[in-house]
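A student in our group prepared the protein record below, which I am reviewing. I have pasted the whole thing underneath without changing anything:
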Amino acid sequence: AAAAGAVFTEGGYAGKLVPLRDQSGHTVAQLKVSVRRDAFAAALDEIDAITVGAFLIALTVATAMGLTVAQTISKPLRRLAAAAVAMAHGDLHQQLPTQRHDEIGSLAKAFNAMSVRVAERIDGLSQKTQTLALEISNLSAFGATLAQTPDPHAELRRLADMIRAMLDADSAGVFLVYDGQTTRAAYS
């Protein structure tokens, strides 16, 4: 006879003896459970098939979730990269959607604020460059006028006024140097 808990085979059957115990833990009987080997093998094959199927379903779900998360993150990052490249090529008025309330949304908001500040600074520099170009043109014209004017001191005073205004200075003066001597010719 087989011991309690032992697995045994008899002909086309596999079985196990299971001890039945009383309240004090003494074995009072043994239950013999037998299953046909071919039914047991079929049950194992079915368990294997279910396990493989469950694994493939879990793998498919995990892959789909991974791709969704990757797409959720990479799509906004691709937009950010494209906007940065466009800014680098001179299109300074780039804006990204900011409806997200996560790190990607914070990044988009920061990028938009930076884009606005860069565009404002570039526009300001462009305006200053145009103003300076105009002033240089005026100075060139002034030089030609000064050579032909009957009252050079009045023209030099006008030059001092222009330079003070152009540089937003408190005062400006024009001094003439002749034989190493400096003389103030005009003041604004």
User: Anything to note?
Assistant: The first strand starts at residue 7 and ends at 10. The mean pLDDT is 85. The two ends are 125 Å apart (CA to CA). Helices lie at 37-88, 103-148, 152-167.
